[in-house]
Amino acid sequence: MSLNILIIEDDDSIRRVIKKILERENKNYRIIEAVDGKEGINKINSNHLNLILCDIKMPKLDGMDVLKYVKKNNLTIPFILLTGHGNIDTAVNAMKIGAFDFIEKPPDLNRLLITIKNALNNKKLTDQNIILKSIVNDDYKLIGSSKLMKRIDKLINKVSKTNAKVLITGLNGTGKEIVANQLHQRSDRSKNLMIKVNCAAIPSELIESELFGHIKGSFTSAIKDRKGKFELADNGTLFLDEIGDLSLNAQAKVLRVLQENKIVRVGSDKELKVNVRIIAATNKDLEKEINLGNFREDLYHRLAVIKIHLPSLRERKVDIPELTKHFISVISKEQGVKPKEISVKAQKKLQEYIWKGNVRELRNTIERLLILGDDPISLKNIESFINQ
């Protein structure tokens, strides 16, 4: 597979020497040339590039203009500047804008080749991350055009820009984690971490350490200091899933943090200030749990500033064709299988079925059908693989 490298350099002799060296270094390097910044931008627009080598001082448009064009158009192409001795300050400023590196002219050949290899490796990793993020983002999309889902989407848009605490309720499999992710991704905290805690999955004796951290020696297995989830989520979002399963003792500790915005690690007496946006979720009726004495009313009111209730899939059957299409696309990428069509009768059967496991059960069924079913997916496939 060829790697396209654009050299933008007005000095013919330097451009030709670099071209010759790169072609000799790697037969997969395909060199594209431009004699000034204006021609360089034309070549950028007409070629799929893996790397740009660009002089700073050139007629028509200089290297800084080309770099700014690349960054303005969100092009993920590594940009290496070729600079004379008098342009070092400019080159350093260019790196602040987003250049990968700069090399003085005449270039040291070993450094040039190493820098190019590093830049191409960085480009490869960046491209892989973009693909992975697209898969992850696809999996955390809010899918559905029903009135119920449009109302929820509109509410997420309003709430996400604030720091208000949100309580998400709904049956298992309705997509509470997806809503939590959307609240974080659409917020000003999206550049920072969203830390997820499944309160039901952590033993009661470890929950305090898990949430607030501990210091070395505070208990038998505490062999070193450890940050808790609140600290890790500082300036970001903490998602407390299955909050209804938190013990009363842990609820009291969480309430204190929400009131004071401070935590204390297990075994320490030092208070640490945290700036965390809290999103909680539960499949339980917390008001009923309060009456039973299983959940603190004061914590409930702290968490439920904004409440978002997710409907079951049977309440929004109109969304099933859209969800099916989405899952076929996402799962085929994940599993490396060919996407399949689905027959009209099969799609109708999916809409008629009572999905006790909600969206999660539908997704699992589509995954089975993609791996084991016919193409197109038939009514017989649905009847065979559904509810397995």
Q: What is the name of the CATH architecture of the largest domain?
A: 3-Layer(aba) Sandwich
DSSP helical segment count: 16
Average residue pLDDT: 90
Gross morphology is: globular
Biggest sheet architecture: 5 strands, parallel
Low-confidence stretches: none
Query: SS-based structural class?
Result: alpha/beta
- Alpha carbon gap, first and last residue: 44 Å
Return the CATH class of the largest domain. Answer: Alpha Beta
Approximate strand percentage: 15-25%
CATH superfamily of the largest domain: P-loop containing nucleotide triphosphate hydrolases
Q: Compute the number of strand runs.
A: 14
Give structural notes:
With 388 residues, the chain is α/β, with parallel strands linked by helices. The protein has a five-stranded parallel β-sheet with strand order 2-1-3-4-5, with helices on both faces. It has a five-stranded parallel β-sheet with strand order 7-10-13-6-14. It has a two-stranded antiparallel sheet with strand order 8-9. The longest helix has 31 residues, at 109-139. It has helices at residues 12-25, 37-46, 63-72, 88-97, 109-139, 147-160, 176-185, 207-212, 229-232, 248-260, 286-291, 297-303, 320-335, 344-352, 358-372, 379-385, and strands at residues 3-8, 29-34, 51-55, 79-83, 101-104, 166-169, 194-198, 213-214, 226-227, 237-241, 262-264, 271-273, 277-282, 306-309. The relative contact order is 0.09. Helix 6 (147-160) packs across helix 7 (176-185), helix 13 crosses helix 15 and helix 14 (344-352) runs parallel beside helix 16 (379-385). Helix 3 links the parallel strand 3 (51-55) and strand 4. The chain folds into three domains: 3-137, Response regulator (Rossmann fold); 147-309, P-loop containing nucleotide triphosphate hydrolases (Rossmann fold, 3-Layer(aba) Sandwich); 315-385, Helicase, Ruva Protein, domain 3 (Orthogonal Bundle), CATH 1.10.8.60. The protein contains 16 helices and 14 strands.
